């Protein structure tokens, strides 16, 4: 083995493409070893979490839709907001020193 090959093999160990953080696979394998125990529902602090179904978030979007502004369109020009302008207050008296 020449020097170049030795340096290449040594550098592969330093410059690893493997992530330094967990990928989640380790947790899944550990969970599979423990077995799929039933969750303890007393641990959930928010009881509404247990009542969610697949349409819950869609229903919330429908309920909040009436409060949202309409989306802009290229068919209708933007309208500037109407602002009521009041007359400026009179200038205060300048106190003169005697």
TrEMBL record:
InterPro entries, per the entry: NDUFV3
Any one GO cellular component localisation term in the record: respiratory chain complex I
Name recorded for this polypeptide: Complex I-9kD
């Amino acid at each position: 083995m020449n020097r170049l090959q030795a340096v290449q093999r040594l550098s592969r160990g330093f410059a690893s493409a493997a992530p330094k953080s967990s990928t989640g696979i380790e947790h899944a394998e550990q969970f599979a070893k423990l077995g799929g125990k039933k969750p303890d529902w007393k641990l959930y602090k928010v009881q509404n979490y247990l009542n969610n179904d697949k349409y819950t978030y869609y229903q919330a979007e429908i309920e909040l839709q009436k409060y949202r502004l309409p989306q802009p369109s290229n068919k209708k020009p933007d309208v500037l907001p109407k602002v009521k302008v009041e007359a400026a207050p009179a200038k205060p008296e300048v106190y003169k020193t005697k």
